[in-house]
User: What shape does this take?
Amino acid sequence: MASRGSASTALRLRAEVRPFVDTWTERFAANNLLTYSSAIALQLLVALAALLFLAVALLNPLNKLSLWSQTVEPGLASRLPVEWMGAVIWSVQREAASASPALIAFGCVVSIWEVSGAVRAVMGALNRIYGVDERRGFVRRFAVSFALAVAVTVLGIVAAFAGGGAFEPHITAIDVAERVVVPALMIYAIVALLVYVAPAKRVPWRWASAGSILIVLSWLLVSAVYADWLANVVNLRTPEGALALVLSTVGYLYASAIAFLVGAQLDQLLREGGLRAALGGRR
Assistant: This one.
């Protein structure tokens, strides 16, 4: 009797979950969400190198050298091989010391160019999610992507400097607020700009939509897991650790892209048919 009851409960649970799984599976397949996530992650991986270069170049002009020397450098020194750490310190010190306006301008141009590629991938993904055709011309589409790339780059740099003490072992509650809340607000602003401006057709925007909240919370969770993984699992003093660092970073960017597109898709389902549609019920 107990086994029959368990089987019956399992069947009911499966019947309730199946519409939800079917709805989201169909949306993932129809809108190529995984393919777009891969494209966004690849573009972000390339852009990350340019953004790191720009961040280092801005350390001296923004009077943030202490952020490197007191937090990031000690954290890296305990994880990287001595030879690698020597090369990193030499590179950072040399770039920070010679951060001329021309060097900063070069970093800005390269960063914006690379980030704009990720923005254009986002534009294509949101058009698929919202079911709109891309009717903007080549010039306008690139202009929008560059404008968004400038905003995303600025907000991303602010988030990086605000949360830059992640390597510091002992932090206060105020530090936690600064290194979590400020980056979260910057990411929220990035999400709002992309969702509202990137698609070919404007969609209604709510400041506290379920999708936007899901994106920010998912990004914070993914970032925390990524940081903990690098700090406590990956051994960068081994050849395998270097490979794990690259693969982990790609996975982090991929998971972040998926979280963004799932949040956008959730808001679209809610607009189409409310909570019932998002959970797989009939509209």
Remarks:
- The chain has one domain: 29-278.
- Residues 239-278 form the longest helix (40 residues).
- Residues 29-278 form one domain.
